[in-house]
Structure formats: C-alpha cells, structure tokens
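User:
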Amino acid sequence: MQKFLALKTTNLSKEYKTKQNTIHALKDINLEVNKGEIFGLLGPNGAGKSTFINILAGTVIKTHGKVTVWNFDLDINPREVRSSIGIVPQETNLDPFFSPRKLLEIQAGMYGIKAAERITDKILEITMLKDKADAYARSLSGGMKRRLLVAKALVHRPPILILDEPTAGVDVELRQNLLQNIKELNAQGVTIILTTHYLQEAQELCDRIAIINHGKLIALDKTENLLNNIFTKKILFRLKAPKNIGEKLNSGLPINYPKPDLISITYNKNEAKIEDIISEIKTKNIEILDILTEDADLEDVFLKLTKSK
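Assistant: Predicted structure:
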C-alpha cells in the first residue's frame, strides 16, 4: 500500500540569472514529507530554505521541477496547494490595532470561509490566546504574538503547517510553550514542516530532517540516523582538585582543560575504547569525583555536513 505524502518535490530548482552568471538558489531538490510527521528543514543563512517555502506559498516561481502538496500539483492546482498549507512567517506582521479574534475573522474572510464554518474560538483555545481574544494585538507579549501568527495560519484548517523560525527572539519559557503547542497540533494530525536555527529544537521535535546548503540537499534521514553517523564522543573527568596531567594520552588523544578541575577528552568511538581512556586517566595519581560522557548532537552533524559540502 502506497503511503500518503504530504509534500513531494522532484528536481525542484530556482535560478536567478545575472549578467555575469546564474545563481542557483535551489538545485534539484528531491524530498518527501510524510503525512503526520514533524519534518525539519535546516541550513545556514542563504542556504535556500526561504526560497523553498516561498515557492510553496506561491510568492516565488520555480525555474523547473515538480511540487506536489497533499496530492495537488503546484502547476495544475496552485490554489488548492496554497489552501493545503498554513505558513507561520519569521516576521511578526500583525495589525497592532486589531484584536486576535478580529484578526482571525479577517483572515477567515480572506479565505472565503463562511461565518458559520469558522472555528475562531477553537483556534484561540488551541493557541492559548482565549484570555486575550479581545485585547489589542499591540498589547500582547512577544510569545503571544508568535502564537497569534500560528493561529492565523490555522484559520482555513490546513493539513500542513510550515513554521519558519517560530521561536526566534522569544525567551526560554515562551519557547517551551510554543514547542508544546507544536507537539499538540501534530498530535491532532497536522503535518509540521519546521525551520529553526535552534538545533536542539529540531533534535527534540523532528521525526526526519533535511539539511540544505548552497541550494543543494546534502542530507535527508531520520534524526536518530543522522546522529548515529557522527562517531565523536566526549568524556569528562571532574577532579577533587585542579591538576595538569599533560597535553596528550599515550594513544595521542589531546587532553583539554575546560575548567581547572575538569579534564575533557574527545575521541572517535570506532577508534578508541572508553575503558582504555578511563584506565589511563586513573593511573595519573588524581582523585576523580565524577565521570561524564557526552554523545554527538545535531549541531555536530550540522557543522560536519555544512563544512564538508
């Protein structure tokens, strides 16, 4: 049985021609987003993420390739494609003199949704804005404004929600609230496509991740598989008293001292054994209070891939 795809792109490309050369904002992007997943779209500034999103939104015209959204072809059914997507932009583009309720009603009217079919109160409840439903948008906190952008994107009940840097510029508590909001929307069946510079968010939320660099797709896999491809590990020894035991182990691994009472050793788990490292450190006539290990995280994966491509 063929799986249902929320989004599929085949050889998607966008070129900008200048007098001197051709700039490839996107070059032959092939990816699939499954229905119901949280999909991460990552890449450094200028990688092509915004171009990708703007093509889906209809504000940028692709040069060539095929885009299918919720089984609608972008070339044949552009209106249906736009109706299948709700986009939460990076910029807080809200009219400060309208209330959340009024803004959602206006947005629903723009999509041609009849008054009897609108779910304004439900959306305000989902995005935790019910208490501020009739307040001026200008009086909302930064986190509330972010949630209001999410609410606006939901008025036409799109099956796919694209979140472009949703937690940029908000404090830790509000970021956690927004992330919880994303999880709840996904649990209700909404497919989420997330771009973020906070790699920990992507690691926590995303089922799969695509990494774009210089307009090219350089990685696409399950989050856990990307992490497993990085073999770097770190072991930390917390000492009772500061002590320098040299610059290298017998194996040649460098010894680092991030703090006077802390020894840090980074190693490749396929080339060195943690037992050997611990055994050698214990021969150095030092008193160890604690031993900690750290696995690679998504930032390690990201840096390795974008530096090598």
